[in-house]
Every structure is written in structure tokens, then in C-alpha cells.
Specification:
By secondary structure, the protein is of the alpha+beta class. The protein has 2 domains: 64 residues, no CATH class; 97 residues, Ferric Hydroxamate Uptake Protein, Chain A, domain 1 (Beta Complex). 37% of the residues lie in helices and 27% in strands. It has a 5-stranded mixed β-sheet with strand order 2-1-8-6-7, covered by helices on one side. A 3-stranded antiparallel β-sheet has the order 3-4-5, covered by helices on one side. The chain is rod-shaped. The termini are far apart.
Length: 175
């Protein structure tokens, strides 16, 4: 009987040893899992660092790129001989000329502009129903400085510009 007891004890010890070995193996697996989780965390942290603090990178789309687009605008003012003034404000597009701005104002406010381009030079005959005449002519100003009507089709405007068309009497210098 002692031999049977000894065999049972050995078997119990063997099972206990197997449990301990399995337990140790599980602990090693847990350590490996923990190690891999730490490595993955470090890798993700590095990617987040790159994403947030480097130019041009937005891997996880974490940077909310906020852009406020301001429309580039200019004003066109038209003053008649009696002092009545109409002002138009509109968006400035690339390569927009003074003539383009005048025509855009005319289109938006539904008035006529009669002009002629001959030999590359512009001649304005009528704006907003107000014609040039032997005694009246159009003066054009860009930001307060006089400009030649002949170049309105080639002179480009920029954001914030003020273009003024003023119908004024011809000054007779012989008096």
C-alpha cells in the first residue's frame, strides 16, 4: 500500500508541477503581452507626436485646420454732374481690371456702360445713363489718384481698391 500511496503522491506532485509550469508559462505570456502593449503604445505616441507637431502631417486628422476665407473686395463709385453717387462693392478676381470692375458693377446694378476699344486704347462714352459730351468728361481715380481712361482695360485692381468715376465739366483754360 505504501507503494500505491507513493504513486498517488508522485502523480499529485506531477500534476501540481504541471500546474506550476502552466502558471509560469501564462505569466511569461502575460509579460510578453504587456511588453507588446507597451511597444504599441510607444509607437502610437510617436505617431501622435508627429501628427501634432510636424508641418504638413495630419495622420490622424487631429489638427483642425481652420481657415477663414475673406473675400477680396473693391468698390466702384460713380458720381454724376449733380453730385449723385452710386457705390458698388464686389469681389476682386485674379487679373481683374478697372474696366472689368465697372462692367461687373453695371451688370449687378443693371445699368449700361458704352465703351470702345480701338488700337488698344479705351474710350468710355456712357456710364449709368450719363454720357460724355463736349462740355462734360469722365475722370477716373484709383484710390484717390487720377488714372487715364485709355488704360482701364489693362490696369488691374487689388483687394481694397476704390475706383471712382466722376463726370466733370471741361475746364476751359482760355478764360
Amino acid at each position: 500500500m505504501p507503494l500505491l500511496q507513493l504513486a498517488a503522491t508522485v502523480r499529485r506532485k506531477k500534476e501540481a508541477f504541471a500546474k506550476v509550469c502552466t502558471s509560469l508559462k501564462k505569466k511569461e505570456d502575460k509579460k510578453k503581452v504587456k511588453y507588446y502593449v507597451i511597444l504599441i503604445g510607444i509607437g502610437l505616441g510617436f505617431l501622435l507626436f508627429l501628427d501634432l507637431f510636424t508641418l504638413g502631417s495630419n495622420i490622424f486628422n487631429l489638427k483642425k485646420i481652420q481657415t477663414t476665407e475673406f473675400k477680396r473686395t473693391a468698390e466702384v463709385r460713380i458720381s454724376g454732374q449733380t453730385g449723385e453717387t452710386r457705390t458698388f462693392s464686389g469681389e476682386v478676381v485674379e487679373n481683374m481690371t478697372v474696366l472689368d470692375a465697372l462692367l461687373a458693377a453695371a451688370q449687378s446694378a443693371n445699368f449700361n456702360v458704352d465703351y470702345l476699344i480701338a488700337n488698344g486704347e479705351l474710350d468710355i462714352r456712357l456710364i449709368n445713363g450719363l454720357p460724355e459730351s463736349p462740355v462734360m468728361f469722365w475722370n477716373v481715380y484709383l484710390n484717390g489718384a487720377p488714372i487715364s481712361i485709355k488704360n482701364l482695360n489693362s490696369l488691374e485692381i487689388e483687394n481694397g481698391d476704390l475706383v471712382e468715376f466722376k463726370l466733370k465739366p471741361v475746364v476751359n483754360e482760355n478764360k
